[in-house]
Amino acid sequence: MSDAFEQIGSAPAVVSERAAAVLAQDAQGRILCQLRDDFAHVAARGKWSLFGGKVETGESLHEAAQREFFEETGLRVEATDLTAMAKIASTVKPDWEIYIFALATEVDPADVRLGEGAGFAFLTPAQIAEMDFIETYTRFFEKFFHGTAAGSRI
User: Fold this and answer.
1) What is the average pLDDT across 42-64?
2) Alpha-carbon distance 148 to 154, whole Å?
3) Most buried residue, 22, 107, 148, 150, by most Cβ within 10 Å?
4) Is residue 49 classed exposed, middle or buried when 0-12, 13-18 and 19+ CB atoms within 10 A define those classes?
């Protein structure tokens, strides 16, 4: 269980909030992505992202990633299955920083029980490039997939 997050781009000048997100893949190496709700109170509504959310008071990044992933997908993951991957400034909320973990275990699409969001999909890098993602995640995927064959595992 590593806590070495690679910084992507510049860090926010001031970080008032942190969020944790999980990059999960299925057996074919496709990435589990969330279509955000299209409600007025939802940040980046109607856009695609990874599953995750705000770190609550008293929570570690790992705990937040586990809780959010469970709340949004119905899937429980162990902290030891999460590896620190990257941190990136939010393009939606400028004083937020997002910490992205890679999930070591494969996710079976049949096991996902959507608890939040308008939908979900397992997407290839080519499909991700065509979808309307939150810019934060577009930047993350550009770095993550640079030089990586479509459909390969992390």
Assistant:
1) 94
2) 9
3) 22
4) buried
